[in-house]
Amino acid sequence: MAQISSEDEAQLQSMLRQLLLSVKEKITGAPSLECAEEILLHLEETDENFHNYEFVKYLRQHIYDTLGTMIEEEMEKCTSDQNPGEGTGYDTLVQHVTKVTQESKEYKEMMLSLKNVMTAVVESLINKFEEHQTRTKEVQKKTIKEKCFNYCTDNYSDSDSSFNQSYKFSQGKLQLILEQLDPGQPKEVRLEAMLALCSAPPSDVLNCENWTTLCEKLTVSLADPDPAFNDRILKFYAQTFTLSPLHITKEIYTSLARHLELYFLSGENHIPTLLTGVDVTHPNVIRLLKKVRLLNEYQKEVPSFWIRHPEKYMEEIVESTLSLLSIKHDQSLLVSQKILDPIYFLALLDVKAVWFKKWMHAYYSRTVVLQLLEKKYKSLITTSVQQCVQYFESCENMKSDENLLRTKHCGNKQKTFYSGQELQYIYFVHSLCLLGRLLIYAQGRKLFPVKMKNINDSVSLTDLLVLFTRLIYYSPSCPKMTLPEHAEDYSPASLVTEVLRILCDQKESAIECLYKSQVIDAFLEPIHNLMKETEAAANCSETALIHVADILARIASVEEGLFLLLYGENMNSSKDENPTGAHLIAQFSKKLLDEDISVFSGSEMLPMVKGAFISVCRQMYSTCEGLQVLIPYNLHYSIAKAWKKTSLLSERIPTPVEGSDSISSISQESQNIMAWEENLLDDLLNFAATPRGLLLLQKTGAINDCVTFMFNLYAKKQVSRHEKFGYGVMVTQMASTAAGAVALRNSGFINALVTELWSMLECGRDDVRVTYPRSTPVDPIDQSCQKSFLALVNLLSYPAVYELIGNQDIPNKSEYSLREVPTCIIDIIDRLIILNSEAKIRSLFNYEQSHIFGLRLLNVLCCDLDTLLLLESQYQVSAMLLNAQEENILEISGGHRDFIIDGLSVERNHVLVRILLIGGPLERILPPRALQKGNDPYPWPMFSSYPLPDCYLSEVTKRIDPKQESDIGKLLLHCKISEKQAEWIENCRIQFCQTMRTKPNIINGVVLAELFEKFVLHITENPSDCYFPTVDYKATDADVKNESLSSVQQIGIKMTVRYGKFLNLLKDGAENDLTLVLKHSERFLKQQQTSIKSPLRCLQGRYPGHDWFVSSLFLIMLGDQEKTLKVLQKFSRLLTSAFLWLPRLHISKYLPSDISESGIHPIYFCGAHYIEMLLKTEVPLVFSAFHMSGFTPSQICQQWITQCFWNYLDWIEICHYIAICVFLGPDYQIYICISILKHLQHDILKHTQSQDLQLFLKLYKLLEKR
């Protein structure tokens, strides 16, 4: 088909013409060439007649004739290769055959042949179309006069089509025009020649043989002083830029750039100087600005299409531009006598260097620009830096800058004259924007340092950033009241801040440019001056400080920047010697809040300055490491004090009286105060982002107001601009403490959460018009309810559960309305979990789905053993579940009974096994909650009474290997060698570590009991190792025999004894012994407690949960009551006891009163705080996963530690955990938690993606994968 006959060519032209005429309206209506191409590419999708076009039929037949046989053979081959029993997807088969066809030789030959033929047909069609144009020359002239080819148009195109022109322009006519353009010809002749040239079809002019000569003639003619003739040439240039392809417009552009270059280098032209300024009404200046503007408009448009052309075209455009802008006149002249360089005029027209921004945007052009700057035109960068340096040096004496900005931008009157000082400032702005764009990119930063003539040392990257920083507060500020709003965009501080913001947004550029101690010091310089009240302090404006705080907040929001502010480059976090940025910012913010800076007294902008610097502090104290550094400054008290003061002011604002003149002023004042009050509440709320910060927030007494503020934003579907992932983390942190849970309840948050859940699960509070039926759920928890389910899981930690439902009965009403919507957690338990009456079942529209939701929630709650004991003691959940299973039994023939297997019975069976069995991954077997395929969908036995079937119990190794007995003897022997106490303790630790590394399994049973006892007895004999004083305790068994334990403790005792007997650690009678141990323990600790008046339920007497550490120690001591009590009393003197034995510090007199009254245990505000801090450093991906999930490491670690990892680790691993913390110190509790989270990193990231991280960590056992 490569050789085509004339008949075939004519036929193809006819087909193609038919197609083009059919889509003519669509193409002509397209706004750009790219859109027209898109229309043609998607014609099959949009044109219902697509397959009826003759051209399309021709292509289809040609493809079938060429490739049809091959396609059929390939399909038969694929079908025959498929196994008879297997199905094959149609889409898969089509994809395979299409791939094979496209990779075949026949396909490539067909495409090449088709391309050649269609190229010939299209070229012939274009030529015929041009030859048969019917428009006359007069109509063409009229059309061109009506069409304005203004050179500042934005509608450039690379099209070289001549479809819309009037006639073929002959070579003879063009030769005549060339002769008429000769400078020796009369003015009228040359004007007529230019008119004819503008009227000619661009394709004919650009494709003529004499185009090069014409281009040279036009370049020479640009120097003609006649303005009318100049305008004709520029109009032709603008027309060419608009209608010509890049290889032609490139020549026009370079010729214009060459002309301007010669114009500025020639000494004959009258170019303005800085002394005379620029009068834009002067004819010479008008002509020059028109040429520069035409150049600049093309600069801004050409990046949109030069990537579609050879790189050499772009290189010529870039090089001609840089060559022009690099022109520098005699530098020996005085500044005032200096002749203006081309870049001054370009800056006048493009102040913010938009052309350079567009050239640097794409890698394709950026590479060329940077290479040329580095090799040939580095002087352009040098002069830009020089301009910034000169402006900075003159700032102190340039008080007229204020007038400059005022005259440049105020009013609507067009400016006609620019003084030398204004021109210098405009050039400075252009240089600043150019350098700012250059610094974003790595290759641009490599151009530094630059050497300047009048400075001995070169200017490095850091020097430039220090210069930028100082420009913010040393340059004159704009008078706020006299400038319109947009004038601020051109003030030095705003411009520099805009550049620095862009650098902050790019991590690499921020690290290389901003995260340097010299740059940070430059930012902090005005703060130093204000703190010391030096003379320079008076020159620092509030606006400059706000800009500085904005950049500092952005720096503090990134890990590397925060590290630099907190510790500096020398890792110094001291606040006394050479304080780091964090210390100085905190001190300054505290002074601002206390209004202890005289310079700003009475300033209207003082609240804005306060807010800006508190925002910097917030970026720091909302992280664990930042809070550690800022704690000494008590910012939480200062912010709370300012909030209380502002709150009182808002209450005193008089109510405006209708008709009074003061309404508007009072209203504005009220709005400002309210906004400031909300900002301060938001600042206080951010303390809740960390465990220790939450303690500080509670100390201020503003926690309820902060949570109410957060809930109000939540109800409006709003969030603070500083929160990327909403308030999930803060809610979870608060729910981990009793006071936080109470605040969430009082604010209405829990009410709203429960109501929203019920509307998704059952029905809303009001009748809402249903536009479409609800879909039937296919998952146990429907996707619409998943978010509410996870929110409840985050909320219901044990401290929250105890405050919300402790000592409260469920309603158990005799009748429930169908529209009765739950409002609290008790209602959720009553309506969804404990369905022990027909009234409750009948009140549910979706009984099975809602009850499964409740059972799933109960399953998660029972993972926290204290919550399980509370639910069991108050509501007897296990008895309720067993009774429900009993009711689910079906009587079958022969007197046999069998369980009905359905979704609810399977869920109940799983929950029952989890409730009634204690054990780690290898110690118990939890049945699945899904049915299996086959004849026996659920092989796991169900039960409705005790005992549990044996299949759920794992076999525990009870015997010790004979080889391990010798190792045990060696270990105990090593621990008896030295008689010196200190040496013995150190030797014992060494031997323990070696044994844990080599044979950890022998640290168990008798060995651990003996080691534990000896170690605690020895270490407590040294007063320096003891943290708590000795307590004189003389109570006997008879003294405590009649004392009672809480119902939670009593159920916990039974659970512990069951577990101990399962492990073969306890014998009969152990329950009484453990009861006595717990009674002694409670009495022993009561001697060290203080009375507290608090509304919190958890502080109303005894420890609210079960004592899991004492239960664990009882098992370690193999049920020996005397040894357990003896070791416990000695162990209570060690600091480790505060973190392993949680009841140890319950309302303890050893804690400060404000901490005791908070109800927050040190394991949370200290241990969990450090876990989060180290996790962020050691395993940042896991920390980020928690943050994105709205869950916190502190909550799950608090749960693990509280119950001594029961149900999460096997018993031997629990023993190792306790032993490591006792022998090596409480710090290892933190390291163990971090190690576990690191071990689970892969699973944590996977479940973060599937949005069930909370469920994974609470439900599944740790270290299950060996």
UniProtKB/TrEMBL annotation:
<keyword id="KW-0966">Cell projection</keyword>
<dbReference type="Pfam" id="PF23431">
    <property type="entry name" value="BROMI_N"/>
</dbReference>
<dbReference type="InterPro" id="IPR055392">
    <property type="entry name" value="BROMI_C"/>
</dbReference>
<dbReference type="Pfam" id="PF14961">
    <property type="entry name" value="BROMI"/>
</dbReference>
<dbReference type="GO" id="GO:0005929">
    <property type="term" value="C:cilium"/>
</dbReference>
<dbReference type="GO" id="GO:0005737">
    <property type="term" value="C:cytoplasm"/>
</dbReference>
<feature type="domain" description="BROMI C-terminal Rab TBC-like">
    <location>
        <begin position="861"/>
        <end position="1258"/>
    </location>
</feature>
<comment type="subunit">
    <text>Interacts with CDK20, which promotes CDK20 stability and function. Interacts with FAM149B1; may play a role in cilium assembly.</text>
</comment>
<dbReference type="InterPro" id="IPR055391">
    <property type="entry name" value="BROMI_N"/>
</dbReference>
<keyword id="KW-0963">Cytoplasm</keyword>
<keyword id="KW-0969">Cilium</keyword>
<feature type="domain" description="BROMI middle region">
    <location>
        <begin position="173"/>
        <end position="843"/>
    </location>
</feature>
<protein>
    <recommendedName>
        <fullName>Protein broad-minded</fullName>
    </recommendedName>
</protein>
<comment type="function">
    <text>Required for high-level Shh responses in the developing neural tube. Together with CDK20, controls the structure of the primary cilium by coordinating assembly of the ciliary membrane and axoneme, allowing GLI2 to be properly activated in response to Shh signaling.</text>
</comment>
<dbReference type="Pfam" id="PF23440">
    <property type="entry name" value="BROMI_C"/>
</dbReference>
<feature type="domain" description="BROMI N-terminal">
    <location>
        <begin position="12"/>
        <end position="138"/>
    </location>
</feature>
<dbReference type="InterPro" id="IPR035969">
    <property type="entry name" value="Rab-GAP_TBC_sf"/>
</dbReference>
<keyword id="KW-0217">Developmental protein</keyword>
<dbReference type="InterPro" id="IPR032735">
    <property type="entry name" value="BROMI_M"/>
</dbReference>
<dbReference type="GO" id="GO:1905515">
    <property type="term" value="P:non-motile cilium assembly"/>
</dbReference>
<dbReference type="InterPro" id="IPR039156">
    <property type="entry name" value="PHAF1/BROMI"/>
</dbReference>
